[in-house]
Amino acid sequence: MKNPYATALEMQRQAWEATADLAEKSQVAPERTETLENVEVGQTPSEVVYEENKLRLLHYEPKTEEQHDIPILVVYALINKPYILDLQPDRSVVQTLLEAGFDVYLIDWGEPSKLDRQLSLDDYVNRYIDNCTDVVRERSGEDAINILGYCMGGTMSAMYAALHPEKVKNLSLMAAGLCFAGDGGVLELWGAEDYYDPERVTETFDNVPAEFLDIGFALMDPVANNVTKYVRFYDNVEDEDFVENFARMERWLDEGIDVAGVAYEEFISDIYQENKLYNNELELGGEHVDITNIDMPVLQIVAEYDHLIPPGASKPFNEKIPSEDTEILEFATGHIGMSVSSRSHEELWPQVCDWFEARSNGTEEHAEPEITASEAEGVAGDESGTVDLTNGGSSVETSSDSGAQTDLDSVTSPDTETDLDAETSELHGEDRSDEEIVERGEADVQEEPAEPGEMNVDEDVVEEVTDEELESEPDDFTELTGVGQAYAEDLSEAGIDTFDQLAEADVADLAAETGIAPSRIEDWVEQAQEQ
After folding, report:
1. pLDDT tens figures, 340-378
2. 341 near 91, Cβ under 8 Å?
3. pLDDT tens digits, one per residue of 184-231
4. Residue 69 in contact with residue 61, Cβ under 8 Å?
5. Rounded Cα distance, 370 and 223, in Å
6. Is 52 helix (H, G, I), strand (E, B) or coil?
7. Is the Cα dihedral 305, 306, 312, 315 positive or negative?
8. What is the spatial distance between Cα 258 and Cα 208, in angstroms, rounded to a whole number?
9. Percent of the chain with pLDDT over 70
10. Longest CA–CA separation in the chain, Å
């Protein structure tokens, strides 16, 4: 049984600590209030190069002396302002693309008025996106451009690529709702025809109010959205960086925009309820949105913990289109985290930039050309597909896309007017000189012969190998005092999977990434260092 006096003293100590903590937080409250009110967003310099109705097309100032040939047009959703892609300088998709050498444009839809209630998906796709695409094409001198669509903007980008494939060089779809056959998450369930009629909403409001949408999104995770985030804010109020990040996100959430009534009706009924895009049954303006036209390279970027657009609402789409160059990048974050988390910009976006770069300079990889029947006659082996090598009778089987098998004897025969020695020579086709032979040989000769039973090791090679990061099995963080399963999952989502990684983590950065109090993380780091 616990000593009652010790229990009372412990309770008194905790009360004193809480009072002291409140006093410290109260001292910084005025400064943090100013931060919340004056935080800046969307700071990357840009100019408006095209306007139509409420729409503005932004062109961002380049960050590099030279840019890749094919520009990128970013298409965001209709339900929020697009500066989530440029929330702050060190966590900006726009800046990341610019620093990778891309010429970047972004559509800012603006907010529809009552007069815009009749704007349809046809207007947004075949008029607005198409006009912006033509502006970018004309300014860049390119016949086709790259398109990066995010969320609802990704869905509309897929529609656009199906309707205007000749204008789309490469298509990247980020958390795009494309397939709603039962794996679309809570929104698909709530928006099902049995439970929800979008026309009742538009008949009441004309355009769908941002507040109406915000409440729905918040109710998908009510505790996290209405309790947890404010508790974390209180715990971290002394951390100015955390407060700035919190303020930017809250400003973005508070500045939602209304959605044009007809476009909302069509999106809910045609995309969510009837799954017409995925089933290749969608029509816009009387024209079939034929997804079999999507034959350009397609990259899907999905978030493993996305509760708005789960991976299952995106990934199956790649199997429905004819493109032979498709790829999926699935990252352990949420719907918004893929665009604003520091880890996404360190690990995910360099891969996205590499994907675009490989296809934006005329250097994209192509499949090996098939060998024609006439060409195959000169290189095909016997029916078994194997050839006997002159130096030992071993057999090697090689194949091309056409299934032709290469006879290695034909490669080295005198009739080809070349040989392997000449092919591999640094002189490219000429016989190696004595000097070259000596030079190439010296580089491979050990300085001292190995003793019997030993071997000499190239220390440079060993160092190179040992410097590589080796994958480790994830550690169980719940072994640490104060870490439950929920906190362990937060650490994993932030890329911390081992005690060694936690021991070396920056407390401030990890607190900003996870929303966990720095004091907690500091304690866990100390425990991890003792493991």
Report:
1. 988 999 999 999 999 999 998 754 444 343 433 333 333
2. yes
3. 666 666 667 777 889 999 999 999 998 887 777 666 666 666 666 666
4. no
5. 58
6. strand
7. negative
8. 5
9. 66
10. 100
Q: Which helix (H) or strand (E) holds 150?
A: strand 145-150
- Which residues have a catalytic role annotated? 151, 306, 335
Query: Is pLDDT above 90 for 430?
Result: no
Which residue type occupies 198? Answer: P
Asked if 186 and 220 touch (Cβ cutoff 8 Å), the reply is yes
Q: Give tens-digit pLDDT for 244-257.
A: 777 787 888 888 89
The single residue listed with the structure tokens 């006879």 is: 407
Task: For residues 19-28, give the mean pLDDT.
Answer: 53
Return the structure tokens found at 317: 């789409």
Arithmetic mean of pLDDT, 295-324: 95
User: Angle CA(390)–CA(391)–CA(394) in degrees, nearest 5?
Assistant: 85
Rounded Cα–Cα distance for residues 154 and 47 (Å): 23
Burial of 187 (0-12, 13-18, 19+ CB in 10 A): buried
Q: Which residues contact 117 (CB under 8 A, 6 or more apart)?
A: 202, 206, 207, 260, 261, 262
Give the Cα separation of 452 and 458 in Å (integer): 18
d(CA 421, CA 35): 69
DSSP letter, residue 477: G
Taking the C-alpha atoms of residue 92 and residue 98, their distance in angstroms, rounded to an integer, is: 10
Tokens describing residue 53: 């109705």
- Output the six-digit token pair for 342: 């520091």
How many Å apart are CA 224 and CA 245, to the nearest integer? 17
Q: How far apart are CA 360 and CA 354, in angstroms?
A: 10
Tell me which residue of 220, 208, 255, 254 sits closest to 81, measured CA to CA: 255
Find all residues with CB under 8 Å of 267, minimum gap 6, and list them: 121, 152, 155
Kindly state the tokens that stand for 205: 């409001």
Q: Alpha-carbon distance 244 to 115, whole Å?
A: 37
> β-strand 168-174 against 283-284: which pairing, if any?
unpaired
Averaged pLDDT score across all residues of the chain: 77
Report the half-sphere exposure of 319 (CA within 13 A, side-chain side): 7
Residue type, 361: N
CB 71 within 8 A of CB 103: yes
Structure tokens at 432: 């190696």
> How many angstroms separate the CA atoms of 289 and 125, rounded?
11
Q: Check if the beta carbon of residue 520 is closer than 8 Å to that of residue 528.
A: no
Threshold 0.70, pTM exceeds: no
155/177 Cα distance (integer angstroms) = 6
Q: Are strands 326-331 and 298-303 parallel, antiparallel or unpaired?
A: parallel
